[in-house]
């Protein structure tokens, strides 16, 4: 894992998620790409180059955020990109390669019931990159105990598990698997993929209406440092990933949430 992208939003949440990302990167010897997208529309007849001004202001804002945290000798690169967040992230991934996105879970919205706001929700929905969301105010600690929740042991993607495998090997973490049998499960869903089987420290099988209900039932028992799920076209919180915002009543996590890219 070499390049970690940190999208920057509001100052308060940005500082917390950036500091977490830097602390994490310092442990694994990774680089941090601090990123903010901007847009500008120049009116006809305008002499001043608005794009240049906004680009300078965006870079200044990024430098201010970076200077407000402890960099811990981590290599930090600033990226101010004109255009949409999704298009910019895809371009950065194409040019530099992104191994992981780390972003704050709290929305900039004043609505406290929102767990993931539009920007983070869009990244989850529209990119195929693994995303680690950090709860508001959460301080970094080594990942020793991971709870991975899923509704099917089938894993078709050869790369989906790589971020989890890397973290487990780097931190010598325990990975406790939670297989939640939801409505219409099949016998095939109960058979673990070989890569999943190789990860497990323990396996718990439960039957609930939703995967989230399974997480709520077993979260306190395992007390994880990290919760891990798949983002699948069909699978964990299928309906959640169809939206750009996720409400706390639908899903929330008090620890960092690793969302692995979809398998099918």
Structure description:
The protein has 264 residues and is an alpha/beta fold. It folds into 2 domains: 3-104, 3-Layer(aba) Sandwich (Rossmann fold); 145-247, Rossmann fold. It is 33% helix and 24% strand. The protein contains 8 helices and 12 strands. The chain has helices spanning 11-28, 50-67, 85-95, 118-126, 162-171, 194-199, 211-222, 238-241; strands at residues 3-7, 31-38, 76-82, 100-104, 114-116, 131-134, 145-150, 174-181, 202-207, 226-230, 246-247, 257-260. The strands form 2 sheets. A 10-stranded mixed sheet has the order 3-2-1-4-6-12-10-7-8-9, with helices on both faces. It has a two-stranded antiparallel ribbon with strand order 5-11. Helix 1 links the parallel strand 1 and strand 2 (31-38). Mean pLDDT is 82; it is low at 107-116.
What is the secondary structure topology, with strand pairs?
Blueprint: E1 3-7, H1 11-28, E2 31-38, H2 50-67, E3 76-82, H3 85-95, E4 100-104, E5 114-116, H4 118-126, E6 131-134, E7 145-150, H5 162-171, E8 174-181, H6 194-199, E9 202-207, H7 211-222, E10 226-230, H8 238-241, E11 246-247, E12 257-260
Parallel strand pairs: 1-2, 1-4, 2-3, 4-6, 7-8, 7-10, 8-9, 10-12
Antiparallel strand pairs: 5-11, 6-12
